[in-house]
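The material for today's practical consists of a large collection of protein records. Backbone structure tokens are a discrete shorthand for how the chain folds in space. An example says more than a description, so a record of this kind follows:
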Amino acid sequence: MSSVTRAALDQKVAMAKRCAHEGVMAGAKAAVVASVAAAIPTLASVRMLPWARANLNPTAQALIISTVAGAAYFIVADKTVLATARRNSFQSTHQVNTHMPKN
């Protein structure tokens, strides 16, 4: 087995934190966009459609908007973290392969 140095572990932890941070930022941006995209038709329909006016109280409206925002956050954050981890994995493999001595 290969021994793992403290520096290598620190580098992997830093890379994982960077992946997570990128995912959080991308998820937050997506949540804001999704909130606006869901709020406009929800609020407009409550004003214009009699069925929506009768059946969608403010709590239901907030639930619709927040559900869309939450789903967008988690979907985009997950995809971003996975894509960043995959990209870093390929970079790490490439670095290991370039530093290995040729036979």
Observations:
- The chain has a mean pLDDT of 87.
- The first helix runs from residue 6 to 48.
